[in-house]
Amino acid sequence: MAQHDYDIANGTGAAVRTDINNVLDAVVSQNSGGSAPSTTFSYQQWADTTAGLLKIRNGANNAWVTVGTLDAANLGLATLASPNLSGNPTAPTPSSGDNDTSIATTAFVKTLVDSAVAAAVGNLTDAMMPQGSVLQVKAFYHDGIDDSSSSTHVFGGLTGTITPSSSSNKILVTMNVNCETVPAFGNVPFMVTAFRGSGSIGAAATGTNLAPPNNSANGGWQYGAQADNVRGMAAFDNDGSSSESSDATVSLSALDSPNSTSSVGYTVAAHRTTNSGTFRMGGRAAQSSMILMEIKG
User: Fold this and answer.
1) Residues of 15-44 as b/e, b for ≥16 C-beta within 10 angstroms?
2) pTM, rounded to two decimals
3) Structural contact between residues 260 and 291, judged by C-beta atoms closer than 8 angstroms
4) Among 93, 98, 104, 118, which residue's beta carbon has the most beta carbons within 10 A?
């Protein structure tokens, strides 16, 4: 280890030769020492034996810059050929769409992937969706009370429309219809269904009845005390007493094939199943709802 102020002082021949040898020792040992040389120059190298690092003086001669690790192959620096990097190496991010031998940083890859996904999703059409995919969903609600004594289906106030994107697609119709039997009306049981069709409340239901196929053309989902032999969901009196109202939500669903790309309407309909009396859709329970979903065919 040797350091020098690089100033050869005047002296006897032997003294000057010793001073020159000391300078050469400092040069060949990279000014090695446990502390920094007291006299420094721009771009001077220093083998810091305390830290085990090779350092170089900056151009302004006011700080040391670490070059690498002493006693390590290649000063511990990455080689040009097949470098083995560690930690979190960084590199300049190439411009989007770059197509050469530049290093692809994570920022470059993320930008490329985000762009590709955005383009794919933005260009995704209904025709590209697999069969059975839900293409659109629409929801409708009704808070009103609809009373009727009709023995054939009449429309209620719960209705909705949807426009299929393809005539081969299907519409899944789901209704939750608030129903009530009222003592003053004779606790009349009634049949509830969904029609592909629309009209005013209380008008005769026209169009296609979406009741289960094994029901009659005037069939549907039974509400009331005569539900034993009828397919669907039923609700009964609270305790069988004719003096109490009974209200519940009747849930029904049907998968329809309207074969249309025009607006298609769906409406709840009902009729009494006794010889006389009045039935009620709506009442004390929650509002009625309809969900229409277009399904890829």
Assistant:
1) eeeebeebbeebeebbbbbeebbeebeeeb
2) 0.57
3) no
4) 93
pLDDT at 125: 73
Which CATH code fits 134-295?
2.60.120.760
Other C-beta atoms closer than 10 Å to the C-beta of 2 total 17
Determine which of 81-85, 88-92, 118-122, 173-177 has the lowest per-residue pLDDT on average: 118-122
Cα separations in angstroms, 151 against 201, 212, 242, 271: 15, 19, 21, 5
Please calculate the CA angle 152-156-157 and round it to the nearest 5 degrees. Answer: 170
Cα 285 to Cα 134: distance, rounded to the nearest angstrom: 30
Cα–Cα distances in Å, from 85 out to 52, 106, 221, 282?
Answer: 20, 16, 71, 72
Summarize the confidence of residues 194-211 as an average pLDDT. 93
Cβ neighbour number for residue 90 with a 10 Å cutoff? 10
99 has pLDDT over 80 = yes
Percent of the chain with pLDDT over 90: 51
Give pLDDT tens digits for 28-62.
Answer: 999 999 999 999 999 999 999 999 999 999 999 99
Query: Any idea where the domains of the chain sit in the sequence?
Result: 1-77, 134-295
Element (H, E) at 76: none
Determine how many CB atoms are found less than 10 A away from the CB of residue 104: 12
Q: Which residues of 166-176 are buried (b: 16+ CB within 10 A; e: fewer)?
A: eeebbbebbbb
